[in-house]
Write a structure and sequence with these properties.
The structure holds two protein chains of two kinds. Chain A is mainly α. Chain A contains 27 helices and two strands. Chain A has three domains: 74 residues, no CATH class; 250 residues, no CATH class; 221 residues, MetI-like (MetI-like fold). Chain A has a two-stranded antiparallel ribbon with strand order 1-2. By secondary structure, chain B is α+β, with helices and mostly antiparallel strands. Chain B has two domains: 231 residues, 3-Layer(aba) Sandwich (Rossmann fold); 120 residues, OB fold (Dihydrolipoamide Acetyltransferase, E2P) (Beta Barrel). Chain B contains eight helices and 20 strands. In chain B, helix 2 packs across helix 3 and helix 3 packs across helix 4. Classes of the chains: A mainly alpha, B alpha+beta. Chains A and B meet through helix 23 and helix 24 of A and strand 6, helix 2 and helix 4 of B. The complex binds adenosine-5'-triphosphate (ATP) and magnesium ion (MG). Adenosine-5'-triphosphate binds next to helix 1 of chain B. Chain B: One of its GO terms (cellular component) is ATP-binding cassette (ABC) transporter complex. Chain B: It is an enzyme of class 7 (translocase). Chain B: It catalyses: ATP + H2O + polyamine-[polyamine-binding protein]Side 1 = ADP + phosphate + polyamineSide 2 + [polyamine-binding protein]Side 1.
Chain lengths: 565, 365
């Protein structure tokens, strides 16, 4: 009667049309040599060309249809993942905040404390960073690697203002004009540049030649001008330069007085006078100042950390994720008591597996029942399976708290039955048991649904055939039914495993300290410690682990053996 | 109802009833006995309860009432896997995750038959259905007809004495179906197995079976050999269901033992054999096969003839098929053999038709 098998359709269904078009295309491509010339369409254009044109329009239309989704996925899925991968190695903040220091440290041998130039560069960098309020961010970044750096930077940032005050005072004492912004503008700015009194001027332009004569001063004054303009939105015409600019000027003049004397720009005379006077100035040592601010600046560890993390990209986050650390002396294992991530990864995998297995054990019979009941009953029961989806996750998780706690319903019942002594109630929550119970419950529908949809497609005639061939109920199930339901198990397992490996609300609420997942740690780094790089590295590792497991699964079970129905 | 071969009944249904929902009877009072080695076909329209009967015999449905016996033993309460009945399903039901050879090995494995023995039997069964080279394939790599052969081989490999087939050829094209019909009957005959075969293709039923049970509405309407069924239908359902058939409404006018005269609604009279009419004045449905009708017959002076008008004349190669208006109905079909001397009628032509009284059967209305 019903002989409409798939083979029976021979007419031009859309699929067939495409298939035929494909064949035509292949023939057109491969068959040219055999034919004398290309096959021509009715209007004389080569057939292949007109076919391509026809198909191109189709393809474009199809593309236009999926374009919104494609864009959506790119923006919300691909881009964040790419960003995460990038963040896990990205380390530009050190180089961006301390460019001068990093440059000086390139020549440092890593022994003891670097020399005066390093401190000097640090003072310049820190002054700018403090004005831009970047130094605390850098402090937090380096604090992930060495504790105490954060407060070191904050403290230093507060006091960096005063560095160079000694020189400022002496210059002003020498010639009060040094206090005037106008003097500085006249000395440093290009002749055409206008400070634009009272309003925000155009970007600062350095006078030609100044940078050769007064390299540090030009550098710092330029930075000063930029900061005033962009951060404070004021004009340098109204601002006395930072103390550090006087320090820079002092260094420049004492290092190369001849050049300053030979300088022929505006204010050349004043500069020459200053150059003459500088050797008599009272001086300070930058390293002393810093070590005075915080003695940590005199520690090899601080400088080692800055140097170790000076490159734009770092493996530091990944090392940290694997319980290693990047120290000035190379890669080292974290101290015993701080090795948490390896343990957490193991625990996450182990618990996800456990949850997955308990979901299979609980879900398989339910799905089997559902798929064998009459439609009406099974629909009703299906609603019960889906019911949890209509309840808030938090409510469900909290319900488990009520049920599982030591004075909770389940313990009460066990005590009442006499299975458990009253003074020895089971600890079912705030540990791994709690997480496994609650997560199994929450993820169960994700196992049941694919199982059900696969089982629904297994015709009962297979089991009947097996029985008619002499198989007992169990043999018929195990040898005939079960193998055909494996794709459903596969799909359910992948779903449940991947969902649970990244779950974090439930473990957070019922997991206590021993039942939390790596994702809880990631969440902590994202929202509390703000160590996004580490969070990204952990996330990347998690992603890689999932992909590897997926690959293994594909090798063992075969991914085409997964069916959602 | 059926009482042939009762001496050595192999399968027996006795007063079997079946209801799925407790409200309607799907099978009503089924009595049937099938002899050993017999090829019995259950034929009937969709929903008439054929599959249900088969499933009760196989053990997948329980009879609501009555007894089913196999080889003299009651099997109502024996689970399917202990009945030792081979079965071929309409959708083949070959296990998709096993190769052909594994499919065939399955019934032998569950019977704990040793490996060498098993392989011998599998090879023999595959050869039997001419599929010897296909042992390593998966069912999905076979065509429909090949799958059906394998299903057959699997049902036979453990040498059951009784094999049930539920529309095994339903999904195949005509030509393949005919080949397999022939092969199945030949195999069944050679192996001496008893076959209960379900189909709703009457040609299949007539060509393959020793006896055919015509089902309708949960009852066996007639159980008889194919020729008997075709030529001597017991009631109007069978007459109309099997083969092409002309029917005329009328009343019994005279009734004398083996013949009767029927007065049609048009007032014309015809001769017929009374089959299930008992009284003069009863309404009746007269049934006559198209190939038994003669046009402008020469039947002797006493025979009744009817006036007819040709409506359509169809050339069909071996036969001519003529549609006539007879006694107020315009679906009367006459088939005449294509002979050299056969006159070809033209639409509108007026003719007389007639037949031998024994070819015309007066059935229940
Ligand atoms: N599992 C079932 N539950 C309820 N009613 C059923 C069930 N199986 C069959 N029926 C009903 O029993 C009647 C007989 O069905 P059965 O399958 O025996 O018909 P069949 O003669 O095999 O028809 P077909 O030729 O279409 O296969 C039908 O009316 C059908 O609706
Ligand atoms: Mg049926």
């Amino acid at each position: 009667m019903s002989n409409t098998g798939p083979d029976a359709i021979t007419g031009p269904t859309p699929d067939n049309a495409i298939r035929q078009a494909d064949i035509a295309e292949k023939e057109a491509a491969g068959g040219d040599a055999a034919h004398a010339g290309p096959v021509l369409a009715a209007d004389g254009t080569p057939l292949k060309q007109s076919l391509n044109r026809a198909l191109r329009r189709q393809k474009l239309r199809a593309l236009a249809l999926i374009a919104p989704l494609l864009v959506f996925i790119l923006v919300t899925f691909i881009a964040p993942i790419a960003d995460m991968l990038f963040r896990s190695v990205e380390n530009e903040i050190v180089e961006e905040t301390l460019p001068r220091t990093i440059k000086v440290l390139e020549d440092w041998d890593g022994q003891g404390v670097p020399g005066e130039p390093a401190f000097e560069a640090l003072a310049y960098d820190l002054m700018i960073a403090a004005e831009l309020k970047n130094h605390t961010r850098l402090g937090s970044r380096l604090n992930y690697e060495t504790t105490g750096v954060s407060s070191l930077f904050r403290k230093s940032g507060r006091r960096v203002d005063d560095i160079g005050e000694v020189y400022a005072d002496q210059f002003i004492a020498l010639d009060p004009a040094w206090e005037e912004p106008a003097t500085w503008i006249a000395l440093m700015a290009a002749p055409g540049w206008s400070a634009g009194e009272g309003e925000i001027p155009a970007a600062f332009e350095m006078r030609d030649g100044v940078a050769e004569v007064l390299p540090r001063t030009a550098d710092m004054y330029g930075a000063f001008a930029d900061v005033i303009r962009t951060e404070d939105e004021e004009s340098v015409a109204d601002e006395e330069p930072w103390n550090i600019v006087y320090e820079a000027l002092y260094r420049d003049l004492s290092e190369n007085p001849e050049a300053a004397i030979a300088f022929d720009g505006e204010n050349a005379a004043r500069l020459a006078a200053a150059a003459e006077a500088v050797p008599g100035f009272e001086t300070t040592t930058m390293s002393e100042i810093f070590i005075d601010i915080d003695k940590d600046w005199g520690s090899n560890n601080t400088w080692g950390t800055i140097e170790a993390f000076s490159s734009r990209y770092t493996s530091g986050y990944f090392l940290a994720s694997a319980d290693y650390q990047l120290t000035p002396d190379g890669i080292e294992r974290q101290p015993e008591d701080q090795q948490i991530y390896g343990l957490l990864f193991q625990r996450t995998l182990f618990m996800s597996m456990t949850i997955m297995i308990s979901c299979v054990l609980l879900g398989y019979p339910v799905a089997f029942l559902l798929s064998n009941l009459p439609m009406r009953t099974s629909n009703l029961l299906m609603i019960l399976v889906l019911l949890p989806f209509w309840t808030s996750l938090l409510v469900r998780t909290s319900a488990w708290k009520v049920l599982l706690q030591q004075q909770g319903v389940i313990n009460d019942i066990l005590v009442w039955i006499g299975l458990v002594a009253d003074d020895n109630r089971l600890e079912l929550i705030n540990n791994q048991t709690g997480t496994i119970i609650a997560m199994t419950h929450i993820l169960l529908p994700f196992m049941i649904l694919p199982l059900y949809s696969v089982m629904k497609t297994i015709p009962p005639s297979y089991v009947r055939a097996a029985k008619s061939l002499g198989a007992t109920d169990w043999t018929a199930f195990w040898r005939v039914y079960f193998p055909q339901s494996v794709p459903g198990i596969g799909a359910g397992c992948i779903l449940v495993f991947i969902l649970s490996i990244g779950y974090y609300i439930t473990p957070e609420l019922v997991g206590g300290t021993t039942g939390t997942f790596i994702s809880n740690r990631i969440a902590y780094h994202i929202s509390s410690s703000l160590n996004w790089g580490l969070a990204a590295a952990l996330g990347t590792i998690l992603l890689a682990v999932v992909l590897v497991l997926y690959w293994i699964y594909d090798r063992i079970v075969g991914i085409d053996n997964v069916s959602l129905g | 109802m059926a009482s042939t071969n009762t001496a050595k009944a192999f399968v027996e249904f006795e007063r079997v009833q079946k209801s799925y929902d407790g409200e309607t009877l799907v099978v009503k009072d089924l009595n049937l006995s099938i002899g050993k080695g017999e090829f019995l076909t259950m034929l009937g329209p969709s929903g008439s309860g054929k599959t249900t009967c088969l499933m009760m015999l196989a053990g997948f449905e329980t009879a609501t009432h009555g007894e089913i016996r196999l080889d003299g033993k009651e099997i109502n309460n024996i689970p399917p896997h202990k009945r030792g009945i081979g079965m071929v399903f309409q959708n083949y039901a070959l296990f998709p995750h096993m190769t052909v050879a594994e499919n065939l090995a399955f019934p032998l494995e569950v019977r704990k038959i040793g490996k060498s023995e098993r392989e011998k039997k599998i090879a023999r069964a595959l050869d039997m259905v001419q599929m010897g080279d296909f042992g390593g394939r998966r069912p999905a790599q076979l065509s429909g007809g090949q799958q059906q052969r394998i299903a057959l081989a699997r049902a036979l490999v453990f040498e059951p004495e009784l094999v049930l087939m539920d529309e095994p050829l339903g999904a195949l094209d005509k030509q393949l179906r005919e080949t397999l019909q022939f092969e199945i009957t030949k195999l069944a005959h050679d192996l001496g197995i008893t076959v209960v075969y379900v189909t709703h293709d009457q040609t299949e039923a007539l060509t393959m079976s020793d006896r055919v049970a015509v089902f309708d509405d949960g009852r066996i309407q007639q159980l008889a050999a194919p020729d008997e069924l075709y030529e001597r239908p017991q009631n109007s359902f069978v007459a109309q269901f099997i083969g092409e058939n002309n029917t005329l409404d009328g009343r019994i006018k005279e009734l004398t033992g083996t013949t009767c005269v029927v007065e049609l609604e048009s007032g014309e009279e015809i001769d017929a054999v009374p089959v299930n009419v008992s009284n003069v004045g009863d309404r009746t449905l007269v049934s006559i096969r198209p190939e038994r009708v003669e046009i402008n017959p020469d039947l002797g002076p006493t025979a009744h003839t009817l006036n007819a008008e040709v409506l359509e004349f169809i050339y069909m190669g071996d036969v001519f098929r003529t549609r006539l208006r007879v006694a107020g109905r315009d679906d009367f079909i006459v088939k005449t053999r294509n002979r050299a001397d056969q006159v070809r009628l033209t639409p509108g032509q007026k003719v007389k038709i007639g037949w031998l009284p024994e070819d015309c059967r007066a059935l229940d209305a």
